[in-house]
Every structure is written in structure tokens, then in C-alpha cells.
Amino acid sequence: MAQTSARAFDVIVVGSGASGGWAAKRLAEAGVEVALVDCGRPHGDETFSEHTSSFSLKYRDRAPDLIKRTRPVQKDCYACMEYNYDWFANDLQEPYTTPADKPFSWQGRLRVIGGRTNVWGRQSYRLSDLDFKAKSHDGYGDDWPIEYKDLAPYYDIVEEYVGISGQAEGVDELPDGQFQPPMAMSCAETLFRTRVKEKFGRTVTIGRTANLTKPINGRQACHYCGPCERGCQTHSYFNSAFTTVADAIKTGKCTLVPNAMAYKVLTDPQSGKATGILYIDRVTREPKEVRARAVVLCAQALESTRILFNSANKDHEAGLANSSGVLGHYLMDHHSSAGAFGILPTLTRPVKIGPPDRPNGIYVIRFRNTKTSEQQKDFIRGYGFQGGGGGGYPNFWAPGFGAAWKKAILAASPSYLQLGGFGETLARFENHAVIDPQGKVDAWGIPVLHVSMTFGDNERAMMKDIAATAAEMIEAAGATNVQSNMDANAVPGWGIHEVGTARMGTDPKTSVLNAFCATHDVKNLYVMDGSGFVSIACQNPTLTIMALAVRATDHLLEEMRTGTI
Ligand SMILES: Cc1cc2nc3c(=O)[nH]c(=O)nc-3n(C[C@H](O)[C@H](O)[C@H](O)COP(=O)(O)OP(=O)(O)OC[C@H]3O[C@@H](n4cnc5c(N)ncnc54)[C@H](O)[C@@H]3O)c2cc1C
Ligand code: SF4
Asked: Ligand 2 pocket: which of 122, 211, 212, 235 to mutate (most atoms <8 Å of CB)?
């Protein structure tokens, strides 16, 4: 028998990451009593290690196999290391299954307050109407039920608070935002930007990143120490744990419920409305219930989808809010397994050891299949590049020993240019997640997901083009030894941008959420993470996830104010 909290809340928000932090902040600041339920444990500045040297760690950050013993999937994520691996889920306790011939890498499952925003790459780009209305452009899939102008004011709100540094470029495919001053480009990057514009007319810009270049809200400007994925004691990158969640708690209206694995959404059989959630205490393993007027799922797309499936009841046998049958379908992730590398032999740099280390790269704005470019024959949609150029790094791989080696690693080095594509993956019904048909459960007895996803012909054709255009641009900048790369066996999940499993739409027969992220079937149940994406575009998703969450929260507040909820 589950214990029920004596306290009734107005709203339960499940998940304290990018989306949940915003929902909790906005609701609590409006005077609403919020329970912020997260399966992670609280943590703060004392657990951050961005200034810790690897030689002070037990295994010098050189024992990946040790981490793999408990985190065989999480360790595939570049950000999971000896410094922070216990922030990540233990894969043995929290498994999932896939078909034998369709690997899916569900990495980036964080189990600390702030979720993925603790370790994210912070690249922050707006979507444009080329993305929101992609079907109208090329006939494939579905348009979103919103357009750019609906979301633009919410992008403004998010950018101003989060602090996005970047450069306005006036390019339709990547709308400009409310930017803090941009970080500087290196010589190699400036040369690359100039040559690529001259030769191809394509725009290379400095990465738009959630790292402060000027202080706001008591947070300091970034001092370029580099490894943001290990935390930041000056709070200079955006992590919901020390921004939105902290703001929500400061109001006195938000109660944090950590270590709480949400199992299912509870509903009232008479009214059909959501009444609360059942969760399992990760520490005591006791089942507990918490009640509220409305429930908001922000647990990350696949996790929220799992909760909805596990909330099936006799009125919703296929999962809660799944009368359309599309819950779990249209799973998307970016493909990011093609690019190129080259050397700029004439741009040599003296070697530096240690910081400054700009926590950001450059970005090449989408130029394929736009409204003004010619349509590609082999694929629809497009891609952007993330990368960088620079030099002056010590060559730790230089051969030799002792004094000769020390001299060799400090020899002046040429600059390099590197690009990696992030491409749009098409929304396909067959890419999906369901509850594991074999009945597998996690360490808390909660049924786990079975995830089935592959890349298709469109993605493979796009990857080839990515490798070719990366090489041609790097060559145009005067690089030698240019090598393009493409991994034909790219595994979905590597992009760590899963979205789309409870998509938005105007028709309840073909979508789970309405244009405000409320489920069509259960009026007082919202899903505000990336589940609602109709298409993934090629831009990193989190800025859009946050803007959608703010818009949806304002809608929920209005529904509560008018008594509809
Ligand atoms: C290494 C890495 C780099 C990335 N780089 C970028 C980037 O550069 N740009 C970009 O746009 N995006 C990036 N992302 C993706 C970005 O972090 C996510 O898109 C974003 O954080 C998603 O927000 P969310 O609110 O949906 O989920 P999260 O931020 O992950 O928050 C979900 C929260 O829900 C909690 N939770 C999960 N399940 C349950 C449950 N059953 N019960 C209770 N709580 C639960 C988790 O503990 C977590 O705190 C990156 C991700 C990773 C891992
Ligand atoms: S690089 Fe900047 S944002 Fe990242 S940890 Fe260092 S100071 Fe913080």
C-alpha cells in the first residue's frame, strides 16, 4: 500500500532538468504550490570538479573499463568520466532492451537534480519556420501545430534568463536571438568563416552557447576553464540545478522531492482527470503517492513516455493519453557521425598548457534544401556543422622519453580545422519505444522500455553529403591532409537528443499533445519535454524544449486561473 503525502499540491512537475526547471520556476513564481519530483539526488557546488586535476583522482581518469562495469551504456557518453560518473544512472539497475539487430544507445541518463543540464554541451539554436512547417516545404511528415512567431517571445524569455552568447547573422534558417556578447573566434576559425562565405556563400558563426560572457542574476561570466560537464562553481553555464530550480525553491512555493522514481500517473476513474503520481523512493524502495490538481511530465522524452505507458489502466489500456496509438512512435535523434578534419600548415601556434580553454566551438548554418537553395536529389531536410579550429596544443603523443619528450610535446604546432555534422533524422512511425514485452523491470520493480530505432536511407544519403561538404569547406580554407569521415554503422542515441515520442498536433487521432503540450485525452496532464517534437530539425533541441515548456506553463496557469483545470 503506497503512503500518500498529506499535503495536496496545485501541480506536480516530474523532472528537474531543462524543461522541468522552467515549469517549476514559472509556476512557483506565479504563487502556485509545486511538488518537483525527481529521481535524482540533490547536489551542488561541493560536487563540482571543474578545477580538479586528473592526477588527484584515484584512477587518474584513465580507467574507463571500471566505469563500464556499472555504466556500460552511460560510459559511451563523452561527458561520463571518473569525475562525475556517479551522476549518471547505473545501467545495471536501470536497463532497457532493444531488438538484437537494432542497437540504441540511451546515454545521458542523469540521476542528480538538474538532469542532463549538468553535463550538456550548451549549444543553443532556435528553430525557424523551415523546421516548424517542414511538410509544407517538402511534403514529408507533418507540420508542427505552431509557427515561429508563436514561440519567438518564449525564446526571448529563455535566452535572456539562461544567458546565450552568440553573434546575430541575419540568416533565415537560424533566427537570431537575445544574445550576450559572442565568444571570439580563433585565427583558423576566422579564416574559415571568411573563405567559406567567399567561396560558397555559407555562414559560419561562433557557437551560440549557454555560457555567460557577462554576469547575470548573481552568476559570473565564464572564465574559460573548459570542462563544464564537471559542474561550475561560478554558475557560468546554464544548469537548471542552480538556476531555474533554485529560483523555484526560493519562492517557498516549490517542494523538492528527490530520489523519487515516478512510476505512473494516477487518474480518477469518474472524471478521467490526473490526480497525482505514484513513485518509488529510490532509497527506501517504498511506494509513495503525491496528489495535485495537475500533473506535468518533464522527465526527458523517453522517460516521460515510459511513465505514460506504465500509467495504463482499464480506461487507457494502451497507455495513458494514447487514444491515438502514436505514443512512443516517431522517436528521433540527430545523426552526428560524419564530418572532416584538416591541417592549416601555415598557421603555426606556440604551445600552451592548461587554460584558457573556450568552452565552445563554431557553427555552420544549414545550407541544404532551404527555401532559397536548390533541392538535393538524394535527401530531404538539412544539417548544420559544429566544430572548431585552433592550435597550440601540446603533442602528448610525441614519441620519446624524459627531456627529449618534454621538448617534443612543446614544439610549435600547426592549426587544425574540424567539423562534425548534426543532421535531421526523419520522423518515422516504425522508430518507437514500448514497454518491454518480456516483462523486464528495473531495480525498483518498474517496467522498462524496449527501444527500436534505425537510421534510414535519407539519413545515410545525408551523411555522405555531410562528409563531402565538410571536406570541401575545410579545403577551401587552405587546409592540407583533409580527411572526411562517416560511420555507416552510426547507432541512434549517440546524438543524445531523443525527441518525438508524444508528438504535438491538432488532430487527437494522430497526436498525443495539443499545441500547448497538454494531452488531448487528459486535460490536466501536460508533457513539456522533447516528447512533443513533430520533427527534430537539425538544431540542438534544448532551447526549443525550454521555450515550449515556458509557453505550455503559461497555458496551464491560464487554465488554472479560469478554473478550467
Ligand atoms: C553530454 C550531453 C550533451 C548535450 N549537449 C547538448 C547541446 O549542446 N545542446 C542541446 O540543445 N542539448 C544538448 N543535450 C541534450 C539536453 O541535455 C537535453 O535535450 C535536455 O536536458 C532535455 O531536457 P529535459 O527536461 O527533457 O530532460 P533532462 O534535462 O534530462 O531532465 C529530466 C529529469 O527527469 C528526471 N527523471 C527521469 N526519469 C524520471 C522518473 N521516472 N521519475 C522522476 N524523475 C525522473 C531526471 O533525473 C532528470 O533530472 C546534451 C545532452 C548530453 C547528455
Ligand atoms: S568553462 Fe566557464 S562555464 Fe565552463 S566550468 Fe569553466 S567557468 Fe564554468
From this structure: 211
